Structures are given as C-alpha cells and as structure tokens.
Amino acid sequence: xxxxxxxxxxxxxxxVVSYLNAKPLIEGLDADDSLELTFxxxxxxxxxxxxxVVDAALVPVIDLIHRSRAWRIVSDACIGCDGxxxxxxxxxxxxxxxxxKLHADGDSHTSVALARIIWKELYGHRxxxxxxxxxxxVEEGEGILLIGDKVVGNTLAEYDVExxxxxxxxxxxxxxxxxxxxxxxxxxxxxxxxxKLSRARDAGVKSAAxxxxxxxxxxxxxxxxxxxxxxxxxxxxxxxxxxLGMARFLELARSNDLVDAGEExxxx
Length: 268
What we know:
The structure is a single chain. The protein is an alpha/beta fold. It has helices at residues 2-9, 45-50, 109-123, 165-173, 191-206, 208-215, 223-233, 240-255; strands spanning 12-17, 35-40, 56-60, 71-81, 88-92, 101-104, 128-131, 143-147, 161-164, 177-185, 234-237. The longest helix has 16 residues, at 191-206.
C-alpha cells in the first residue's frame, strides 16, 4: 500500500510532442499539479527518456527497439493513422518511383524509417537519405520529407508531386500505422501515470474539434483543416489492428537493417 501511495503522490515528468497531433493526448494534463510537461520534437524525446530527464515520453516507434534500451509501452494512447496523415509527406519534382535521394526532416526517426521501407518495398530501391537544410536548390532536392505542422505551411511550390506516407503504408500493408507511443523505462512503476494518459486521450478525442479551433491557428493551420486532421485522419487508440501495423513495421525495419535484430516490443 505504501508503494501505491507513493506512486499517487509523486511528481511525474512527461516528455511531450510539440505538434498539433499530440494535443488530444495531453488534454488537461497541463492543469495537473502532479505532472511536469517538457515539450520537444519527436526525435529529441528518446534522449530525454534515456537520460532520466523525464519519467515517460511520447517516443517514435522506431526508437523502441534498441539493444541499449529497456523501454516498455505504458499506455493504449498513441499517434497513428489508417491511411492519409496530411502531415508526413514527401514533396518531389519527379514521380515517387524516380526518387533516389531524399532530403529528410530529422524531427521524426519513425517517418524517416517509414520512407526507407516504403521506397524499398514499393519501388524496389534503397533511398539515400540526407538532412534537409532548407537551403537546397530545386535541382539538389529530388525529394523532401517533411513532418508535423510545418507541412501545412510549406513553401515548396516547385515540388508538385506529393506522397503521403500514411497512404503509401496503407497501400503496402492494408494496416494502420503508429508513429508514436508513450514509453518508460521497464523498471519504472508508473501505474497512476498510465491511467492519467489514457484518461487524457479519452478527453482529447471527445474535444478534438475544439482543440483544433484553439490550437490550430497558432500552429499555422486553417481551422477546417485542423478539425479534419484531428477528427478524421489521426488515430489515438493503440488497438489490435494498430498493434499489428506496428509489428509489421518493425518486422520490415529489421529486414531492412533499420533496427537491432532480436529485440521485441514490451508492453506494460
């Protein structure tokens, strides 16, 4: 009983994605005195969890499988899609099958890995992936991967071909795709925090349209598009089909040498 009481009373440090897509997962958490939220782009959150700066974080799925880590998935909340995402896209000046060099936004490790897998499985060749600096000429930028809110306000007018990676994954596997999940160190007892995360997700899904109205414009989103994004494009429940999609993604990541072989997902 004493341990359970300590779990309820402690201050939790939570690593949170700074994009619009995470807002429904953290509805009301900023008003919870037992929580301290740290906002960052997805690719920065694994290091915070590794260093013990946060107790749990919304981490890219690709980062769950690593020999140096002992993480577990601690909630049935997630950021996923079952088709088009709107915000994980490759912009190109050539058809997707002709892209061989991809300039990639490094904010999401999962999206970069997904692009590598899609091009290998759908188009039969490996991508050369380099960092997107924003200074590339049209001739240099054969294809550019952008993620998150920046996709909505992009100024890549010269790149008139768009490939949505959620749609491409659906075509490849017929499964949903999961980009990020809540994770903690395996030895951590975060029972009460996991409950808070599920409750926040439930509240956020119910109020997704109003969340879009409140936060969308400040992040560069037209309100109607933000509402469509949060209410019809994204999935926030890690259900059986989402788990299948996540397992299939990691299977393909292993076969393409993107993650350590032999490592498996661990659920709380």
